[in-house]
Amino acid sequence: MIAINFPGAEKFFLDEVGTSYSRLECEAVTQELLELVPPDIESVLYIGADERLPDYLLKLPIKTLDINPDTKPDIVADIRDTRLPSASYELIFLVNVLEHVFEFDKAIAECYRLLESGGYLLVSVPWIYPYHGQDSMNDYWRMSREALKVLLKDFDEVNATQRHWNSYALATK
């Protein structure tokens, strides 16, 4: 048991330690799920652009997309309606984004539309994680692996798992 006994300690634990462990968990599980994807992927979309993409992703032919131009994405668009051509990507990352999208079903439908036949959608969403909305984005949802399976019902195959901080799925179209 960790004793939290200094002013602001609880916030520090949730913000600093929780964020660190959640990021480490997410990167580890993402790498595990990527092992199920063929290595010769030629078109990748990372939604929810982050200026700090992990090194293992930088090896992929990756384009980033975000609604916020301040994150410096390759594509500025709303994931619910990107206006990108259909069947444009072999692999889409939707990592810790759905909790910020009120109409998450539209986001999943748009990812499905953007994927080529046989393409992969890798999803991560918070499960046990504190509220982390900000002025630029709200925080609406938490999802279990069972919720991801239902949300991804239109995909041919869904490999979903639950870890401590997040729920994850690799779905094949």
What is shown here, in short?
By secondary structure, the chain is α/β, with parallel strands linked by helices. It is built from four helices and seven strands.
Task: Give a written overview of the molecule.
With 173 residues, the chain is α/β, with parallel strands linked by helices. The protein has one domain: 3-Layer(aba) Sandwich (Rossmann fold). The protein has four helices and seven strands. The protein has a seven-stranded mixed beta sheet with strand order 3-2-1-4-5-7-6, sandwiched between helices.
Q: Can you say what the CATH homologous superfamily is?
A: Vaccinia Virus protein VP39
Structural class by sheet pairing and helices: alpha/beta
Helix content: 25-40%
Beta content comes to 15-25%
User: What's the CATH architecture name?
Assistant: 3-Layer(aba) Sandwich
Count of the separate structural domains: 1
CATH class category label: Alpha Beta
Radius of gyration: 16 Å
Briefly note the CATH topology name: Rossmann fold
Give short descriptive properties of this protein.
single chain, 173 residues, alpha/beta, Rossmann fold, disordered N terminus
Q: How are the SSEs placed, and which strands pair?
A:
Elements: H1 9-34, E1 44-47, H2 55-58, E2 62-66, E3 75-76, E4 89-95, H3 104-114, E5 115-126, H4 145-151, E6 157-162, E7 166-172
Parallel strand pairs: 1-2, 1-4, 2-3, 4-5
Antiparallel strand pairs: 5-7, 6-7
